[in-house]
């Protein structure tokens, strides 16, 4: 894995944006809004899961993973902060985040459990985000017409998700996590994550009075279910996680490398330490 660089995104998220910011497409807007609602809580959960699991490792093993963990925490903390700013605008627009409360209540059940359970959940969810990230970088036309700063935000986030996709997985392996737990949690996360995502998306559409429009579901079918759509096009990637020999680095990351190289003017490297400290 290349060194994980924490980047400060050079966009201003203080000014408000249009309710239909994703090119006027109701489904795309509601879908991305739903995803963003999950990130502040989710990213903090991932940070805590990795940090707690690393603390159980022998000192020499901790040292082997130190740089990757520091970079992972720094990037995820930055994502959490950026999406919190984005979500503040959604709240002002009247959208209600019901995902976070459900997820928080669910994760309370894991308190006191073996930290490898939370880490298995993190590794599974990181695979989902990596699949989504690669798909979005391969299909940036989904964001055609989107407000430029928000388009940049999503593509930057996607590029960094592909960069650190193996950190939680590698810590899970280092902690002695089994394939049985890993695949069992992946199946559970599949149901929980997709269920929560679609439930919040539908709720967003209902709040915007766009739920029962033909154009909304035509867009949903195109984005999710077309041959190279987000769900249908990632079935092979989903199955790959269930293989005993799976490793996240088997997934191509060239789109991430290319976007970061082509868009250096959109961010500045800041190092992991400040954001990692802020996540404590």
From TrEMBL:
It comes from the Bacteria. PANTHER family: METAL-DEPENDENT HYDROLASE (PTHR39456). This is Metal-dependent hydrolase. It comes from Variovorax guangxiensis. The lineage of its organism: Bacteria, Pseudomonadati, Pseudomonadota, Betaproteobacteria, Burkholderiales.
């Amino acid at each position: 894995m290349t060194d994980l660089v924490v980047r400060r995104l050079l966009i201003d998220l203080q000014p408000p944006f249009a309710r239909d910011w994703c090119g006027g497409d109701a489904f795309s807007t509601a879908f991305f809004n739903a995803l963003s609602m999950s990130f502040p809580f989710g990213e903090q959960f991932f940070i805590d899961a990795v940090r707690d699991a690393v603390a159980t490792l022998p000192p020499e093993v901790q040292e082997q993973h130190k740089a990757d963990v520091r970079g992972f925490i720094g990037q995820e903390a930055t994502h959490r902060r950026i999406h919190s700013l984005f979500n503040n605008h959604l709240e002002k627009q009247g959208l209600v985040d019901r995902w976070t409360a459900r997820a928080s209540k669910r994760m309370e059940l894991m308190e006191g459990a073996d930290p490898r359970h939370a880490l298995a959940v993190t590794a599974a969810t990181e695979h989902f985000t990596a699949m989504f990230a690669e798909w979005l970088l391969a299909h940036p036309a989904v964001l055609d017409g989107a407000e430029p700063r928000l388009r940049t935000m999503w593509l930057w986030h996607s590029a960094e998700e592909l960069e650190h996709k193996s950190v939680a997985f590698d810590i899970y392996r280092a902690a002695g996590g089994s394939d049985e737990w890993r695949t069992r949690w992946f199946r559970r996360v599949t149901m929980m994550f997709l269920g929560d995502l679609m439930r919040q998306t539908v709720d967003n559409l209902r709040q915007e009075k766009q739920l029962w429009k033909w154009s909304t579901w035509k867009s949903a079918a195109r984005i999710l279910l077309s041959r190279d759509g987000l769900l249908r096009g990632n079935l092979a990637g989903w199955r790959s996680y269930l293989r005993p020999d799976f490793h996240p680095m088997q997934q191509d990351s060239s789109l991430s490398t290319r976007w970061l190289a082509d868009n250096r003017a959109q961010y500045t490297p800041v190092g992991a330490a400040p954001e990692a400290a802020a996540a404590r």
